[in-house]
């Protein structure tokens, strides 16, 4: 009888998690991440872009385009506009960004290469938004 109760508990947990707003299913997180907008656990796994330099944001955006995470005319035009600003492409921050290293302040960095596809997509979209605000 206890096996049946344990089985029921395992089935009930995802159903309960999905009924809580912001706790939808994200592939790779076993139903524990946020759905719409990648809120919840998945969204909290991503770093803040507030301390990232313009050069690093441009470099990471370039990484996102080169790795086919983001594409389209708007992305390309934002990247072009950002990289034509003086000193952006000559910085070490830009080079780090092109390698998929988001610098999050001080000596801290966050690697995009190890992220699962949905999180990488979300972070690249956040970088694009940040890049647009820097123009």
Q: Which structural traits does this protein have?
A:
mainly alpha; disordered N terminus; 2 strands; about 140 residues; two-stranded antiparallel ribbon; single chain
Describe the structure.
This protein has 135 residues and is mainly alpha-helical. It is 53% helix and 7% strand. The chain has helices at residues 2-19, 40-44, 54-66, 73-83, 92-98, 117-134; strands at 101-105, 108-111. It has a two-stranded antiparallel ribbon.
Indicate the topology.
Elements: H1 2-19, H2 40-44, H3 54-66, H4 73-83, H5 92-98, E1 101-105, E2 108-111, H6 117-134
Antiparallel strand pairs: 1-2
Helix pairs in contact: 3-4, 3-5, 3-6, 4-6
By DSSP (H or I, 4+ residues per run), the number of helices equals 6
Proportion of residues in β-strands: 5-15%
List segments where confidence is low: pLDDT < 50 over at least 5 consecutive residues.
1-40
Percent helix among the residues? 40-55%
What letter string, H or E per element, gives the SSE order?
A: HHHHHEEH
The major β-sheet equals:
2 strands, antiparallel
Number of extended strands: 2
The value of Rg in angstroms is 19 Å
Task: Output the structural class.
Answer: mainly alpha
Mean pLDDT: 76
- Order of neighbouring strands in the sheet with most strands: 1-2
Overall spatial form: globular
Distance between the termini: 64 Å
